[in-house]
Amino acid sequence: MLKQLVVALVKGLNSNPAVIIKKITDFGVSAIMEDYAIKHHFPHIENMSKSESLSFRTGDEDVVDLTSNKYATWVVEIDERTASMIARWQGVGFTHGVMNTDNMSILGLTIDYGPFGFLDAFDPKFTPNTTDLPGRRYCFANQPDIGLWNLAQFTTTLEATHLINDREANYALERYGSRFMADYQDIMTKNLSLPKYNKKLIGKLLTNMAVDKVDYTNFFRTLSNIKEDTSILDEDLIVPLKSVLLDIGKERKEAWTSWLKTYIHELSTSGTTDDERKTLMNTVNPKHVIRNYLCQTTIDAAEIGDLGEVRMLLKLLEHPFDEQPGMEKYARLPPTWAYRPGVCMLSCSSWVSSSIAQMIELQKKIDFGLHSVTIITLDLFF
């Protein structure tokens, strides 16, 4: 049967998605794939009892219990896992770069050997992918919407194969939005150690960071040094952030001072000491991230036989939230040479053929003991 399906799909490659979905439906393969995925990766769904959290009303109609349809329950969980994953991306300033459906997992995992990047200079429109530059479809700011779009394609397939209905599909997508906002707000609140979510304060902060192209990772880590002391003179408020607010003029200093005064006022209502807050913030804001220029320098060293940097970088990233004395250089901003295409930005093909391919070979040489993981991507169900 699978051979017949492959032949049918190949013949339908130039057809529209509806034609391809019909071929899958005709062979009854969709349900087989879903059942396999649920059995091996979501076994709890098979034995799920009625849950109020998986019931919903649609207008004047009766309550719909998703547990009566395991596929509806399944797609809700996939949507929520994906929402939580992308919220965590946004919280640490991570940009995936190639959010095609084949690079999204039903398990809510970050996958793809692609041109990812962290926000060395905060820009909502940043993309680390040179092939994404014309429209910046997969830029940092677009990631939540692209995640939703990908899941919409997924649920459309399940609808077309009659595994879920329209109401169940819409509800699952609504749950994506709700989960993303809840998780993102919680993450940003913890990043700043606020007593509660403050949309205006966080929005103004991100605006300031974008104007001054502030390094995302280093800023939030350094912010933990701010003291909850309303008696500090205005001109001294910005002193703890000098290392991350580079070359800003008088007007920008005033903007940051204004924000800091509001922030410190919020902190004063939290009932947390400076030391307690610093500890909490440093458990959610990493000291070290895998910057592209670090990968490049590691590869360059390995190519001439020095594998020490590979081992050092891996050891460092095993504990990204720890200070790790002597490792300060790994938290530095990228050097000037790192801003050229091929380092800070990559195409899909160049990244696969160079950086990742080389790192994989290095891993084999050092014998890191990699474990295989089953990853099922969204597009397998299209």
UniProtKB/TrEMBL annotation:
Gene Ontology MF terms in the entry: AMPylase activity; ATP binding; metal ion binding
Q: Report if keyword Signal is assigned.
A: no
Cofactor(s) needed by this chain: Mg(2+)
Signal peptide: which range, if any? none
Highest taxon, organism lineage = Eukaryota
Q: Name one GO cellular component term.
A: chloroplast thylakoid
UniProt xrefs under InterPro entries: SelO (IPR003846)
The protein's UniProt keywords, in alphabetical order, are:
ATP-binding, Magnesium, Metal-binding, Nucleotide-binding, Nucleotidyltransferase, Transferase
Q: Which family does it belong to?
A: Belongs to the SELO family.
Q: Which PANTHER family match?
A: PROTEIN ADENYLYLTRANSFERASE SELO, MITOCHONDRIAL (PTHR32057)
Q: What is this protein called?
A: Selenoprotein O
Q: What organism does the record attribute this protein to?
A: Pisum sativum (Garden pea)
Upper lineage is: Eukaryota, Viridiplantae, Streptophyta, Embryophyta, Tracheophyta
